[in-house]
Amino acid sequence: MEMELKPAEEIVGVDTRYLWTLPLPGAGSPAADAGVGSVWYFALPLTSAHRGGHSGGGALIPGVDGQERYRNEGTVYPHAGLVEMITYQRRCFPELAWRYVDMSHVPWAEVRAAIEADPPDVAAFSVYTSTALWAFIVAAEIKRVNPKAVVVFGNDHAGILHREVLTGMYGSRLVDFVSTGNNGPFTMMGLLYTLRGQLDLARVPSVAYRRGGQVVNQGAPTYPIDRRLLPDYRLIERELERHYDKAFEVWYAQHYTLKRMVTMPLDGGCTWGKRPGRRCKHCSIQGLTPKTTRVATAIPVLEDVVGGLGANVYAAGDSTLGFSREQWSGEIGFLDELAEACAASPVLRRHRFMLAYGLVFEFLQSAELCKDFIRTWNVGLEAFDPKLLKGDSKGINKGPDRVHEALELAQSLDYKLYISGIMGLPGTTLALLRSEVDNWLAMAETYRDSITTVSVAAPGVIPGSRMYWDSYRSHPGMRSAHGEIIPARRLTEQYIRENTEVELADVEAAIAEVGRGVIALGEERGHMKFGGYMLGGADEDEAAERRLLDDICNRI
Ligand code: B12
Ligand code: SF4
């Protein structure tokens, strides 16, 4: 698969031009470190949001008490992609020092001091659209202190925009390599072997870089996930204790018996993704081909995580609840096998430990099958009025009656619910906005004993989505905003203006009203939390972050 701006179908396969066998056969343990003495892996905070750097965090909403717990608690979930790479690094380079730094928890001053004291030789960043600014800031500081350091950007934002990053005002100076596929460990370990002089760069998959004034991209299909190691969270147990457990305590402790949650790439893609034109318009995930791990491999890892670390498991797939034999083409029996294996495991059969995504339709099909191991159903309801879903494949949620039926079923089978939605979809009027607010509040009130989170956001125009691609092609204004850092809030404002009868300000007022209601209801009973997408771009913090970046760059 090649990550590009134009939504594309993800290809799964093995391209034999590249190195996939890790550790590299015959590499042995080289005596010299060849300039690579330490590798740091960075997870980043949302732009301008030191508060609520967590999914569904966000700025404080005026006019309601009980938001103290939303302040600066950092994310609940360690970063799966980074722990996946660290797991491989321990296998391939057991002697090579590494650090895992999650800046939603570790403050900038502390990170800056650590870089000053002993900068890394290689820095790997997981870059989302909403965290790109911080990726550049930290990369700049590392290059300032250690100009020889090698900077690698990865994840969807960087991969989709690899050209923009490698040739951009900041990226051309700060970023050496960009990962362009869903092959993190192979890209990163390949690069480490290359930097140590043990592998030709041409054999590293899914990597883009500058050469002779050009951008070279060694695009590769996604290596099958049933042949990969799963992330080993024991490697960051100290960070779990120091940071993530506290965040979990604040947000979720009242809802769960296991008091942690870690993300596991057990499956990926969705059954809607085969043809990119059919995908939900706002979905920015490129890797959409349905794929699953091997259940026999996953079970011992899950036993360690649940039984050993005492953690819940966030299934990173986009459509996990869709993967039962009774649905779609009937080809994928992942959940059927998993249910059977969990029931047979002395550790797992005692817990409902998993959080899984699924459409309403998918939940209705698999709720009964999964009721002994899935604890939480994570559902994107998007909107209540079917008119708003037209032209966006989420219409497959099939309107309010099916939603109601699914929520009732969830409650009767004692599922927890993490519910998200979008306000300001094409066709929105002021009257519709009002009725959406009322519907969200009515739902929150009815199901508050099951709901952990209600998260409602404006339609973020982010690269990777069909919405972004359509706007990019049809709007000169959009093209001028396009680049290595995306002004997502400004683009969203424009998108709402052009496709609805309301303004972003109306949408944000409606979201705040839902927020106030949800928080107040949760305070009364149920402990629901509220969150919305922090688009950034609106406050002084972000302007200060931009100045910080320029200031560091001027000193390199
Ligand atoms: C789990 C998840 C979360 C979790 C946990 C994230 C975490 N800390 O790990 C939570 C709930 C916290 C979360 C939050 C948010 N998320 Co989220 N999340 C996901 C989800 C479902 C799975 C990600 C995952 O763990 N996959 C498994 C791991 C192993 O793979 P991966 O991360 O995809 O990375 C692969 C490659 O990209 C590559 N790679 C990744 N990083 C790097 C770095 C280097 C150096 C290299 C070489 C390679 C590499 O290697 C991996 C494969 O081997 C994805 C959707 C999806 N299925 O991809 C959305 C997704 C990543 N999230 C998204 C968004 C928007 C958010 C939020 C901004 C939501 C919000 N608040 O409004 C926040 C941001 C939080 C933050 N501070 O960064 C978007 C990102 C879009 C974009 N263009 O940036 C996605 C793609 C979903 C979408 N809307 O389309 N998210
Ligand atoms: S939003 Fe979900 S169902 Fe829609 S295309 Fe994306 S992953 Fe598939």
UniProtKB/TrEMBL annotation:
Cofactor: [4Fe-4S] cluster
Keywords (A to Z) from UniProt: Iron, Iron-sulfur, Metal-binding, S-adenosyl-L-methionine
Keyword match Iron: yes
UniProt cross-references to InterPro entries, sorted A to Z: BchE-like, rSAM, rSAM_sf
Protein name per its UniProtKB record: B12-binding domain-containing protein
Organism of provenance: Streptomyces rhizosphaericus
